[in-house]
Amino acid sequence: MNKFLGYLLSPVFYLCFFLILVIFQPIQWFCYKVLGYAAHKRSVDILNFFLTYSTLTLGASTRFINRQALPKDRPIIFMANHQSMYDIPALIWFLRKYHVKFISKIELTKGIPSISFNLKYGGGANIDRKDSKQAISEIIKLGRRMKEHTWSAMIFPEGTRSKDGQMKPFQVGGIATLLKVTPHALIVPVAIENSWKLVQFGSFPLSFGERLKWTVLPPIEPAGRTPDEVSNEAENAIRSHLGQLPAPIRERI
Length: 253
What we know:
Distance between the termini: 44 Å
Largest sheet: 7 strands, mixed
Strand order of the largest sheet: 1-7-6-2-5-3-4
Order of helices and strands: HHEEHEHEHEHEHEH
Number of helices: 8
CATH architecture: 3-Layer(aba) Sandwich
CATH topology: Glycerol-3-phosphate (1)-acyltransferase
Shape: globular
Number of strands: 7
Oligomer: single chain
CATH class: Alpha Beta
Strand content: 15-25%
Radius of gyration: 18 Å
Number of domains: 1
């Protein structure tokens, strides 16, 4: 039934999703070019509100749980498992007061209405995965902006999306680089559930009636600990929440 209804409603969802992106492209441009950062960020927040709830056309439910008293006067590095592109709008919308910036592939800065514009001008890090020096340089620049403006960053340490919801081992490179620049940043794991089910049949049809859930887990203080230790604890916190086997303690490159 999920697949059958997906065939019927996926075109409706894609039309809504595309129209939202097209409508907010000139809004973002005007806010950024004329009104400045605060207005541009507000336009991006509202854009992602609509993108988050566009999944209602697929009968999906959205639940975001954050019972943590997170500070707004220090940078935060959020670390989440990654299941689909639909992870991202909710993270931007529900964590909007923390000014969350993403580390994204540089290829995404072109060709996608609204999304490419925000990636290019929103203050995140756009990295070339084939050029390690460029990638490290961009992440360092992001860390400096986090320190200067008290922004936060969102990292998907698996490095790629999980197509079946089973977590892949976390890679420590991104968090290690950010912690070198912002050693006082707080580490906050986020567990994402069922986003992968939306695309379990591929990009068409999308699955109908899935229950999407994001949960902010207790923060981790990185002081006096190595990036490997912090990453391992964040990974295992998410694995525990999802009911998956813990990762072995290991040195990572």
